[in-house]
Fold these 2 entries.
Entry 1:
Amino acid sequence: MKSSVPSGPRRERGRAHTVLALLTTGTLLLTSACAVANSDAAGDAGSADGRTLRLVLTQEPPTLEPCESSLTATGVVVRSNITEPLVERDPTSGKLDPLLATGWRQTKPTTWTFDIRPGVKFQNGQPFTAKDAAFSIDRAVNSDLACNVDGYVFGDEKLEVHTVSPTRLTVTTEKTDPILPLRLSFVEIVPRTTSTKAKVRIPIGTGPYAVKSWQTGVSISLARNEDYWGKAPAYPRARYVWRSDASVRAAMIDKGEADIATALDHTSADKGNTVAYPNNETTALRLDGREAPLDDIRVRKAIGMAVDRKGIIDALLGGLAKPAAQLVPPGVVGHNDDLAPVPYKVAAARALVKQAAADGVPVHRQITLVARNGMFAGISEVAEALQYEMARVGLNVRIRMADTATHLQYQLRPLPRDVGPVALLIMHGNQAGDAAFTTSQYLVSDGPQSTFGTKELDRRIAAADALSGKARAKAFAEVLGYQNETVAQYAYLAHMRGLLGLSPKVRYRPDSATGDEMRLAEVSPAKAGRH
Amino acid sequence: MTSFLRKRIISSAIPLVFVVLGVFCLARLTGSPVDLYLPLSATPQQRAEFSAAHGFDDSIPVQLWDYLTNAAQLDFGTSLRTGESAGSMVLKAFPVTLQLAGMTMLLAILGALLVGSLAAYRPNSLIDRIAGLLSMTAASIPDFWFAIVGVLVFGVGLDWLPTSGTLGGPEIWVLPIATLLIRPFGVLVQVVRGSMVGALSAPYVKVARSKGADPKRVVFGHALRNSITPVLTVAGDLTVGLVNGAVVVETIFGWPGIGKLMIDSILQRDFAVLQAAVLLTAVTIFALNILVDVCHALIDPRVRQAVPA
């Protein structure tokens, strides 16, 4: 029996079929496109053939320009892998070791002479001479390229560079600089054919690896430099990929998709596949001493006493940090071994705040605690704990979580106006190994990352900076103690530790420089599954 | 049909203009990118030169005019981060997202039609209840949580799928698409079921059933066809929402698509790339809306007549 329900005019059915056909065609097109994209069966990080070292980073480097190597994301790929400096600092002992310079000495109070290593070639086959070293220093420090290494390492200093011979170089500073070789360890050497007008995307250096390809958004591949002047690295190839989520990076190690993963999170990483290491980073609250109630030293010291460092470290940082009493960690020249973290004393802190209130300090004025998303794992919880602890001693705190650009507006001079009192949660890494790099930024009155200071502190910092050797270390240690007593711009939290994911297939010992400079030549295949 | 199309284009173009202008102005309210791109020691002259070179020293109306006149000539500026053309960066990233979104919506629609129809065929049956529970759960699960759990369970625990990445066999598509799929699928099953239940209780279906028509033909032939209009409308809206999902999926699984590009551009204050990405996405959504409306009108002639003059 024929149904009496109309099936619709033929034209209407045709339209429905058109829609279906569109959907089907779309699927076929998309599927075929996928097939094109999936031509490499080895995966983003490369195949596990034992010849490619596979690394997963937190983010894609914004650039591989060597003069931007003081940026963590750039330096971790470039430094000592693709390009090399004249001198390198041993991250453990702090000693300076020869690299592209075989020796150096202070020939005049303001002049240092460097002997250049002979027989070294760049990855493009060009020989390396003193002229290349002079060119690289000029390009990074004296040019208009606005390189980051210029700002972080040399400040406003200009250098005069001369080549005495193909293997000798002199560098003259405006005033005596006892740590110039250490500063120059941050200048990566490039051939003198490199552009001085623009930053380069793919660098050429003298390092053990050369850039083979950079597939934007996906991976960076390196190939072993077969003409490398030093010991050949174990892996012929290295490949970097990036995943912003720490649990995915940890999963890649656990599943064998990557050999090394940076910046893991203790909450998601398998302890069997991770190694903790001191990363020279220190967290602290920078207190804006220009604004009430933070302009009162009793309030600033009360904040230091209100912080339960051990509790925060144990509960929120996985025990991977140590309570801090200063901005520089042990191992850095100028670290003061005698300083102990401020004891956790809530009642005493509350009494200090009350004293200040009795003297008319507006302790109930709202303080903004600014923290940066992603600064370290558990940052939001730490900010909330600090807010609670500060409130407990009688202060009124609100939290503002910011992205990097917004955080920088609070961190760098010129500081924002009309934003009230700010307690900025900072994480400072002193990778250079000398307290001068910290004090010049964070402690002098007009430091780019300092809110205030005193003339006496400035004088002591300048005096310490002119010294060398043990006298220098002692003077900076005294500066750090003096700051805590008389200025108290910082409420320290912790000296942090990094967590590196390490496959059982590779052997590598991370050190305090690993987060900024991971030397691939130090990685080798593991024997019997040992790191 | 031409009149219908003209009216729809005009009404859909208005939000597109507002989105593009809004993103342009709001991006500039977040502050200058100078601090992110120049070192601490940059001199005032270097800062001024950087601002002048990228047009940040002009007033916002002047910057907007420059942007619009250049965009009209398909010049979207240069990325501050990479120095590449913003247009080419966006065009490189867009197909990745398009593939993900296209595959996802197709599977979501086909799956929802099947599951929703089965559920509607016998309302309140066991199948209907299971479908209802699963679809409600799917529509409520946060996509980032689903993605991470998927990686841990299917990537690490069971070792069936890769954890992430864009290179490999068809298996690399499973987790990203499943993550993107879960919410639209859940919503669409609800829509299909609701629409089908209404259609199956309509008089013409009762008449057809009473005359002994083949039940499957009644359900999948007549009722489903008449229920498709709201499904297409909702699917269109969900596709627009996939850009949000793409941000999560592309970030977690390392896919270099438009969602990740937008987030990176916002964080890095890379205005040229952000503007180009938003413009292309907005135009795509605009075109998609028109396409959905046209499909809608082709299937249901009442829609063409319903558009006010």
Entry 2:
Amino acid sequence: MQLTVWTYEGPPHIGAMRVATAMEGLHYVLHAPQGDTYADLLFTMIERRSKRPPVSYSTFQARDLGADTAELFQETAREAYERFKPQALLVGSSCTAELIQDDPGGLARALNLPIPVVQLDLPSYQRKEIWGAAETFYQLVRALCAPHAPKPGEPRPAGAAGAKPRCNLLGPTALGFRHRDDVVEITRLLGELGIEVAVTAPLGATPADVARLGEADFNVVLYPETAGQAAGWLKRTFGQPFTTVVPIGYGATRDFINEVAQLAGVDPSPVLSGVRSRLPWYSRSVDSTYLTGKRVFIFADGTHAVAAARIAAEEFGFTVVGLGTYAREFAREVREAAKRYDVEPLITDDYLEVEAKVAEAHPDLVLGTQMERHIAKRLGIPCAVISAPVHVQDFPARYAPQMGFEGANVIFDTWVHPLMMGLEEHLLTMFRKDSEFHDAPSHLGGALPSAAGAETDASLPGSEAVSLNAESAPSSPTSTTLPASLTWVPEAEKELRKIPFFVRGKARRNTERFALERGVSIITVDTLYDAKAHFGR
Amino acid sequence: MSGLAATPRSTVPGGCGELAVLRERGRREVFCGLAGIIWLHRKIQDAFFLVVGSRTCAHLMQSAAGVMIFAEPRFGTAIIEERDLAGLADVNAELDRVVTRLLERRSDIRLLFLVGSCPSEVIKLDLSRAAERLDQLQAGRGVRVLSYSGSGLETTFTQGEDACLAALVPELPAEAPDAPPSLLVVGALADVVEDQFSRLFADLGIDSVRFLPARHADEMPPVGPSTRVLMAQPFVSDTVRALEQRGAKRLTAPFPFGAEGTTAWLAAAAEAFNVDPERFRTVTALGQERAKRAMSRYRDQLEGKRIFFFPDSQLEVPLARMLSRELGMRLTEVGTPYLHRQNLAAELALLPADVVLSEGQHVENQLDRCRAQKPDLVVCGLGLANPLEAEGLTTKWSIELVFSPIHGYEQAGDLAEVFARPLMRRARLEV
């Protein structure tokens, strides 16, 4: 049994829903009790989709147990087919239905529907959302493409002479972090290279499209989390090679261009020589000097974490002080990357552990998920979101890809803005006594801890909107526990408050650590500056 | 057509006139009872709710509940894993370990609820025995441990609160047999609303008024034969039944929504406590007048508009009554997950005779009916709201009705505004 307050990933059937909802002409019949329908609102409210997910729940109740749950499932499947007329059906169980051991695959096959029925076995008590999405896409690809597979040993038929090279884009799903825009950006980039996109899947594809995957020359794996397994099978079955570089960041985009150009047999140099991203120049501009060596903590899904570490180190001049992932499937990749930046990799799905590591590292910027946004806010550290799980505000109306050269531009803005806000907050705090800046509005929202008020280093009031209900953020006191042996003299406390709020917590902790280590029990202004001299900054 | 497609329909005689009730059984689109934790953990300030369930339960809690609460909430999930399913003895040991760890971390907790879920119910994990065991183990810390089920197999949305409060009833202290009559208001209300009602009851001369749940674990109200129970929420039927078993007497009243509902609700208490009618009129006059004035601001927007309710919270019937009688809205279909005739008797009597009530749900068929009706306003859950908006219908997502203070005179205007706002918005947008 695992005790959890927040969790990074949902159960595997949510992963299946991300695939089903991304597609057209597909329907998912899920054996599940009524409460599991909450999942619909992930798509309609958080992703703000205008359509319901194509999922029919069997909605069994206590009185059905041991009686007719199997029949209920069959009726749901039959009705879903008749009402929605999908090209293919996914069938499976949620965690509760898994326990009652009906066999959705067999039950659905017994209906003899005239469409392909793909059975999903997603073990809810072992696996999680990302695995569920990968498995669902893999099963779907296998089921729909296998009938078109060449005989073993038969070579790939050569493409027509003079035809453009063609690839598939694999991996984008519903509820993915900027997947919609990434697809647009990469499709355009491939177009500039003279490469045609045959099928993008699952996002926007129909089962008929998926059945054509084997026709392309190679596959572009945009999100290895969801598409890696399917791409491997397509390679074995259809001899399609696939890309290994994920084009997130300026350098990675260039590497990606070289990789696809080689797979497609085209010349990458015209595209590489055209200056398409402002990131390298913005990073070189004098304004960016203050970014030098900013200490950044990264925690995300595997692909985004590894990509962010490279961007941070090579393209922003940051120092990576933490790197981790909640996706155990990608632990190996993250460990390797952590070695490059000489940090201890953090592989965990316990957000409390992440919080402890972030607090310990005292970073200047956190790059993470929705969870790290909470953590960073509690600790008063600037934060940018780089990966799912995310919040409604991470599905912006504007075009905001992460991939390709435009993605690099977007990333530059997204990471720098929270730091600039920090700088401006610093100025606002410095000039607070100035009449012009009196009651200066804060970018961080809410009230700044007032100079006179009791200030704790972890209680920045958040004004971020509560997403789905009208409650305000609870005001649970999060005061730091001062070791009993330590006392701050009023002058030192006053001096501490002159330090900008976003480094104040760190200064307080460093000073207390310094004092404790030296057996000093009364913290004076001198202790504060002794500690500053000791730790630097 | 068979099974789900052919929904059994029956007409049940109503309290006043023949109210047709469409009973539906099919695919539902509602939250399970676990969702009640979201407001209950805020209400009972030293309680912790530990869901014993799956990763789905944990995911529901944070997704449905608003991921945005960035402080650590007073709820969590003990996620059942593969190895727990191997043997039940193991699960109990695991649960003890998890609870011990939790209480060590949260020394502020005085009341711990083990909350059953669909999976814990299917594997027949006996949480009431686990709670007894843990209660003894943790007695030294001054922590009570109770259990209830919020599973989607047993409960929908607000029924979770009923199950939680019903679990509290056996724990309530006994009121002295010779105690003077006291009033017990049942159902979680916003603190501000509780305070408003307390002032009104005091002005009426009803001194001994208590609320269930109380704000703290050690302030739970006593109950006995002299207790008069007034329901503040329509969904607390199991709790009221349990209170009746302890001798309490139930007062029947409409629910305190709008000026009329609030007055009738207060009147039921006043009558039980023999409050002088003149005094009642004097005390309630100002509130009634303010509520009517606040509501009248929205009457123009709402009058004559047709409203359709999908079933979510069991608040649908009292709200439909308020909207039709005080704001002139026309009711098309009023869906409720469960229609409790006894609790709603006073409400049903006030509904127009031609209203279509539906109980339970077959969401696809109900969507068809909704589209055919083309109502001016649809009240529905979060999963349906945006898709219906995209089809051109105007919606009010029902969750706000559960999370916002809507009871009583001072909230009557806010409640009207909740329904008027989507219509005003649609009228305002030119794109």
